[in-house]
Hints:
Elements: H1 5-15, H2 19-24, H3 35-53, E1 58-66, E2 72-73, H4 75-80, E3 89-97, H5 101-114, H6 121-133, H7 161-180, H8 192-210, E4 215-217, H9 230-234, E5 243-246, E6 251-256, E7 263-266, E8 269-272, H10 274-288, E9 296-303, E10 310-314, E11 320-327, H11 333-342
Parallel strand pairs: 6-9, 9-11
Antiparallel strand pairs: 1-3, 2-3, 4-5, 5-6, 7-8, 10-11
Amino acid sequence: MSIPVQNLYHLLTYAWDQLKEAEAVAVAAEPADTLLDLLARVLVQGTTHVLKRGLARDYVPETELTGRVRGKLLLSDSIRQQTLPTARAWCSFDELSHDVPINRLLKATLHQLLTAAQLDDKLRREVRALYIRLADVSLISVRDVRVFDQVLLHRHNAHYRLLLSICRLVHEEALLTQETGKYLFSDFTGNEKRMAALFERFVRNFYRLRQQHFSVKAEKLDWHLTPDSSAAKALLPGMQTDVSLTAADRKIIIDCKYYQEALKKHYDKEKLISGHLYQLYAYVQHARCQQATRPVRGMLLYPVTHQPLRLQYQLTGTLASLEVATLDLGQHWTKVEKDLLSLL
């Protein structure tokens, strides 16, 4: 599936729930940009902004052999090393420093970009210049992206939020390409599992941010069944929607399907994918039980760049309906947003 680089970036910023941060670092893709180039461009501009504003600082523990007592005197260490006769002692103290985890991760990502063979030459020079400016920050090796979960963001460093999301994505990709031997982001959209999760989060956050009529969330639905035993109840699988839009007057359940095609060949005839339709039907039937008089629409949403679909099926004798729709992610982004809003 071919998705323009700029549109991929929009998908990411919505999925990360960082639309405002992305608007503050407004960067447009240049015609020859790869996703790597565009992310590097955002990182360059964002890091430049951070440096102008001032790198995040925090108190870090230091140990020093000094001629004056500072902080806590490490008496046992000083005695063991016989420093006291020389009028010096080992002391531990906290010192305000830029060499903190959030800056180390930023520097590690700039270093990772410098090692990317396919990065645009002009961008490489800009990245190197910023890397040099972080000379007083330690260079670390990121072997597990869960290290990003340990960074605490607060009002004094919240402006790092978008940068950290990009840094994490770069390192996730770097760890993946170490296994496959491919270039960074050379096959980003080819990872269907990752793109499916990205598409789902994008749609959910888009509707949460771009309209006010519905409350939006991923919703756990109850099975309206009566099990004959606790064992039977325990074996029921969970039922969770990708996107539930709920209002007093109606409810919409969207099941996001990141598939190349919304139709499948069956005996040389194109048909809807039965498993997807059955799943949506189950969601709608159980959602109807929440409030019998409220209309419920279920929608299968496919991101395709051709063969547009907008199919509707009314459940006979009910206020419920099923729909199948496609969203062209290859068109201009303003049209993508307009089409999404038109589905409501």
